[in-house]
Amino acid sequence: MPALTRSGRKDATRLRIIKTAQAQFVKDGIIKAKTSDIASAAGLAHGTIFVHFPTREILLVEAVKDFGRKITERIHELEAMAGNTREILEAHISGLSLFESFYTRLVTEGPLLPAQARQELLMIQSAVSYHLNGAVQRDIAAGRLKRVPIHLVFNTWIGLIHYYLVNRDMFSGGGPVLERYRDELLDFFMGLISR
Amino acid sequence: MKKCIACAMPMNTPQDFAMADISKDYCAHCARPDGSMQSYDEKLESMTGFIIKTQGFDLKAARETAKTVMSRLPAWIGR
């Protein structure tokens, strides 16, 4: 393997800090996680963190943005292959399931996060609502769904799955909850809006 | 898959592109009737309306969300 250049090493260290911060956020919470713990988990001196991210808030925002980009891309990929409303919701669950622990932290702590980090959650939701809107409109026009307001379809669905995520200790002992309840939630929700 | 530079919509079929022209970098929803791309203000208004329709946000929150989404897109970087 060719030796990394100085800027390549810098980029690699920056990425390592972001990945380690994301793992630490899952473990300790986004707000509570300490930069000293992130540094030791990454095998770096504490000061090295601040060479790459001048403040804790900048690191937090960058780590959340990196996560937001990944999950939004995955949701776009999965939902582009889906056609009807149920398939869109299935794709949503599949996409979130891949990142369930971090996503749950983001949902739980969202209102307490710096505005730029919170906006990532809104970006993810906008991607989902875009795909859901198209499918719901098609299914209403085809007579498969009741004439329901589109924003309430989205908000009711998000409310349902977020409730399971935020309380996943109650529903699945703290383990993955979306895959476990996928069919029950989908069947129930589709029953509510179908003709 | 190409994404619209002005609103990030995935463009999968020719109908998704402005004037059904797959050489365009923006989508049918971001084009004016003559095929040119909408301005920042026009797009901000339509995206704000779309967010209200699909997520039910208050006008001010919807506009802020639209600004955030647009600030990440190639057509509007630096706005």
Looking at this protein, list some descriptive labels.
heterodimer; A: 195 residues; mainly alpha; B: 79 residues
Structure classification of chain B: mainly alpha
Number of strands of chain B: 2
Ranges of chain B where pLDDT stays below 50 over 5 or more residues in a row are none
* Gross morphology of chain A: elongated
End-to-end distance of chain A: 60 Å
Q: What is the C-alpha radius of gyration of chain B, as a whole number of Å?
A: 12 Å
- What is the share of helical residues of chain A? over 70%
The helix/strand class of chain A is: mainly alpha
Largest interface: A-B, 18 and 16 residues
SSE topology string of chain A: HHHHHHHHHH
Helix content of chain B: 25-40%
**Spans of chain A of 5+ residues with little confidence (pLDDT < 50)?**
none
The multimeric state of the shown protein is heterodimer
Report on this model:
The complex is a heterodimer of chains A (195) and B (79). Chain A is mostly helical. Helix content of chain A is 78%, strand content 0%. Chain A has 10 helices and no strands. Chain A has helices spanning 6-28, 35-42, 46-52, 56-80, 85-98, 100-109, 115-141, 150-166, 168-172, 178-193. Chain A is elongated, with a radius of gyration of 19 Å. Chain B is mainly α and 79 residues long. Chain B contains 2 helices and 2 strands, in the order ββαα. Chain B has helices at residues 40-55, 59-71, and strands spanning 2-3, 10-11. The longest helix of chain B is centred in the middle third of the chain and has 16 residues, at 40-55. The mean pLDDT of chain B is 92. The interface between A and B is medium-sized, with 18 and 16 residues.
